[in-house]
């Protein structure tokens, strides 16, 4: 279990302090897309963009489930081994 000091240092940090890094990574993804596909998406029909976004949402949900499943399996194993007490 995490110490109170560790938990406090994580929660006391400004959640927006990492915003510039997030923007840098998003820009990088856009630049990679530009190199691969050009700027066609900026002129794409909004309905097509919506369809793309809906597909991405499904992908995010699917990957979220994969991560949840792996974490749940690890939690159950730790609990079974006696290394996690709830």
Can you describe this structure?
This protein is mostly helical and 86 residues long. Helix content is 73%, strand content 0%. It has helices spanning 4-12, 19-37, 46-80.
Q: What is the radius of gyration computed over CA atoms, rounded to a whole number of angstroms?
A: 20 Å
Taken in chain order, the helices and strands follow as: HHH
Structural class: mainly alpha
Total DSSP helices: 3
Shape: extended
Low-pLDDT segments, ≥5 res? none
Distance between the termini: 10 Å
Largest beta-sheet characterization? none
Q: What is the share of helical residues?
A: over 70%
* Number of extended strands: 0
Instruction: Please tell me the overall pLDDT.
Output: 90
Strand content: under 5%
Summarize the structure.
With 86 residues, the chain is mostly helical. It has helices at residues 4-12, 19-37, 46-80. It contains three helices and no strands.
Write the layout of secondary structure elements.
Layout lengths: L3 H9 L6 H19 L8 H35 L6
Using brief descriptors, characterize the structure shown:
0% strand; 86 residues; extended; mainly alpha; 73% helix
């Amino acid at each position: 279990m995490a110490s109170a000091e560790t938990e406090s240092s994580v929660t006391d940090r400004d959640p927006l302090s990492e915003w510039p890094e997030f923007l840098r990574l998003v820009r990088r993804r856009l630049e990679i897309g530009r190199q691969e596909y050009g700027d066609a998406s900026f002129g794409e029909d909004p309905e097509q963009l919506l369809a793309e976004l809906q597909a991405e949402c499904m992908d995010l949900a699917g990957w979220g489930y994969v991560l949840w499943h792996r974490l749940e399996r690890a939690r159950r194993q730790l609990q079974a081994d006696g290394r996690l007490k709830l």
